[in-house]
Amino acid sequence: MQISTVNVNGLRAAARKGFVEWLAATDSEAVCLQETRAEHDQLAPEVLAPEGWHVVLCPAAAKGRAGVALYTRAEPDAVRVGFGVAEFAESGRYVEADLGPVTVASLYLPSGEVGTERQDEKERFMAAFLDYLVRRRDEVQAQGRDLVVCGDWNIAHREQDLKNWRANRTKSGFLPEERAWMSRIFDEVGLVDVVRTLVGDVEGPYSWWSVRGRAFDNNTGWRIDYQVATPGLAGRARETRVERAPSHDTRWSDHAPVTVVYD
């Protein structure tokens, strides 16, 4: 089973720049999208209902913001939107689908900004989502199933996950308390950072680059797009790759797809 995740930075724009062609060429059985920023009636048929795919699109109540989606080859056995917290029920930030023995989720965690309400919102989301992951882990494991949460977590967990980590220690996305929260996901909840486990203790692989300057050309990036799985599924991960565009002008998003192959 191959799974890909990517923040598309606006699905309509990505579709015009190459997402449709990428989707047609991928071997993935599930594709998780974030920051779709689109309503159903704004998408062309080749995006909303491409041949060979089942699509679950979850726009945010606030039009033009956030939004997540799942593209799956097989029709899901069940779909759940949100994670049971009223504040985020219509925020377009979480959807999951049951595909046989595996639940695949698409997550778009708020980005935050230090000293603003956006950061407060991010922290409330983090606290609520951690509680949900504990419950969901117990549920899927009691059923003999697995869970993988794919998406833009908007946090670089370790120094290896951010090229210019020294300059970003006081910025949202690399704050000590955010990184400690990610550690709790792995150490307390017991989920696994699949890509980090596969690639080992190396820099990156980065999946997002600022549009400013020559960040992409110089590979001055952040690794904020993760596949986080229950140990049973993580143990069956065999290979991973970041599908980085060959050049700046061939990108269809400021993020690159992160793909994992599981046995």
TrEMBL record:
Active site: Y108, D152, H255
Domain Endonuclease/exonuclease/phosphatase intervals: 5-255
Listed cofactors: Mg(2+); Mn(2+)
Domain of life according to the entry: Bacteria
Keywords: Hydrolase, Magnesium, Manganese, Metal-binding
Entry binding sites for Mg(2+): N7, E35, D152, N154, D254, H255
CDD domains on file: Nape_like_AP-endo
One GO BP: DNA repair
Site (Important for catalytic activity): D225
InterPro entries the record matches: AP_endonuc_1, Endo/exonu/phosph_ase_sf, Endo/exonuclease/phosphatase, ExoIII-like
Record-annotated site: Transition state stabilizer: N154
Site description Interaction with DNA substrate, residues in chain: H255
Note describing how the cofactor binds: Probably binds two magnesium or manganese ions per subunit.
GO MF terms, alphabetically ordered: double-stranded DNA 3'-5' DNA exonuclease activity; metal ion binding
Family classification: Belongs to the DNA repair enzymes AP/ExoA family.
NCBIfam families per record: exoDNase_III, xth
Name of the protein this chain belongs to: Exodeoxyribonuclease-3
